[in-house]
Amino acid sequence: MEVTHDAGIWVAGILTLAIFSFLYKDNPFYKFAEHLLVGVSAGYYLVQYFFSAAYKKLWVPVVQQGNPILIVGGILGILMFTRLFRKTEWISRYPVAFYIAAWAGYVIPSYIQVRILQQAQATMFNPRGMGLGEIVSASVLMVGVATTLIYFYFSAEHKGPLKTISKVGITFLMIGFGATFGYNVMGRISLLIGRFQFLFTDWLGIVH
Amino acid sequence: MAFYDRMMSIDRRIIFLSVGLAVAIPIIVPLGFPVQVSEETRSFYREMAALKPGDTILLSFDYEGDVMAELNPMAVAVLRHAFSRDIKVVAITTYAGGTGIAERLLTEAAARYGKTYGIDYVFLGYNPDWSGTMLRLGESFKATYPTDQYGKSTYEIPIMQNVETYRDIALVVSISGSALSEYWAIWAGGRYGAKVISGNTAIQAILIYPYYKAGQIPGFLGGLKGAAEYEKLIDEPGMGIRGMDAQSVAHALMLAFIIVGNVGYFFSRRAQARQSK
Amino acid sequence: MKRQGPIILAFTIGMLMLVQFFTPAAFFKQAYNIILDWKQVVLGFTFILGTWSLIRYHYTKISRRRENWQYSYVTLAGLAATVTAALVWKTATGPYPWLFNNVQVPMQSTMFSLLAFFVASASYRAFRARTFHATLLLIAGALVMLGRVPIGAYLSGSVFGVKISLVEISDWVLNVPNAAAKRGIMIGVGLGMTATAIKIVLGIEQTYLGKTD
User: What is the pTM of this model?
Assistant: First the structure.
């Protein structure tokens, strides 16, 4: 066992244990660590946002590269701060409307193309040249997509044939959710593995 | 208390302790379970292996500290694979908290392979508004990132001389802890025809399958297992492979708890049915 | 102009961004690039505003002596220390990256790793095969949990002479029924998001503007 002499890793190790102490119960060490995390993170993010927005995307293009039109972005950004005062709050609607509408404008064609049309196209298949197993799998996939979409169609009451098709759709959804659960577990355990690897390798030197 | 009630009410501290031991012991005492490679990872590897020396990839660190345990092994493996084959890397991050992580991994990988900043790789840093960034890169990399992370003008950085748009990028590699890989496929892939592959957390990877099946993301790595598989393919064992024993044991333990709970539930229901008769 | 102005602006900008997708005309391309650049600056300032809200929240908590008000000093001290470190020692070396690597990142990772314990406890307690669909969910989850880890390679055998591999079954579940369900959800969400975006551009959807005056 070779415990590290790096003060930073000691700090990281102690703070890691402080967070883990929450598993026993909420306590002052955990609260201290949690609040410290919020503060340090906020400070880090503030520096990054300021550097990227105010310096890289505003000061450099406008002042150093001579592109004055970008100052309008800065003005819109500053208008966001009018939210802080009740009398001027309405002014911040302009930058919000600008941002949301710009996003909405390019979402419309992109989502239709990538999330709807291309996905629908990929669902259909030409059985020529495919093996039996591939045809079965492709058919199951096609039935699954169609029945799942029909399940989410709530404009008509689910009765008769629609009810039967919806039930098939729910079956596919349940399999999908089960797979999601399995991957969810995998993801969470992986995060824990990472922390234990840090504790045993970097801090305590038990594992090399 | 009947045995089936005991099966359904194990104290949570016992569960916590069991999970902790199931993860800790295999890390300290490796079991050596072999890693089987999935087709998704092989596809990811094939895309990277098809690159030629001198090609440039755009590597996007779309995560920060919360999920780095799953994604750092992937990012490290991609950098090792790229640098070992003289592939140039233009790196960005779409998370403010990803800058420090990206800097560290890039510096370590560059030192290992003797790569020079500005010539073999560059870190352009963080931009707010990831969707705007993904679209703007399709028009001009230099306008999207007027400077790199360290304040140097991108017009003066050698590697950026030949990188104007996605047309000059052979591959976009998104290492993502959120839906950003999907958005790379939508904005960079759908709008500008860039080829996008991704490394995702397990929670996110399950949502990539429709894109993978449609060819919109031709290869992806799923979770720590995906990282382990890729490390095996490039013959660079790292934190991914080392975590697989613990992953296996923890999964088996969790299933065992779920089965115990359900067996108790089954007997409990049978007892209730008998009582009501 | 308090409400009409932003709606007219939304329509103009939204239509510009929509039309540019379909035309190579230089004016639309120029407008598209400028709007994207402005957008990034606006979001950056919005995040800075978010930080101000955090400071104001904790300041109020301290001044009104709300529960656990003492810890707000820790938050504000952490924030001040990080920003000071960046201003005085810059961001490349020194206390700023030190705080990031030894305070922020380890704690962020550990916070999320706690979920491993809670997901184990919660799934043990709540995951019951009560109905056919719940059983299906459980079986699919079990197949993926075992099939996607190395231990799954050992779980294979023969049934009536037919070789069955848990890894292959898990792969099929992920690539076929799971992909089908996720694709159906994705198409549905895509339709919904597209409809919402159209409503925003046309001014029908106005919730982003906040409460009516």
Answer: 0.93
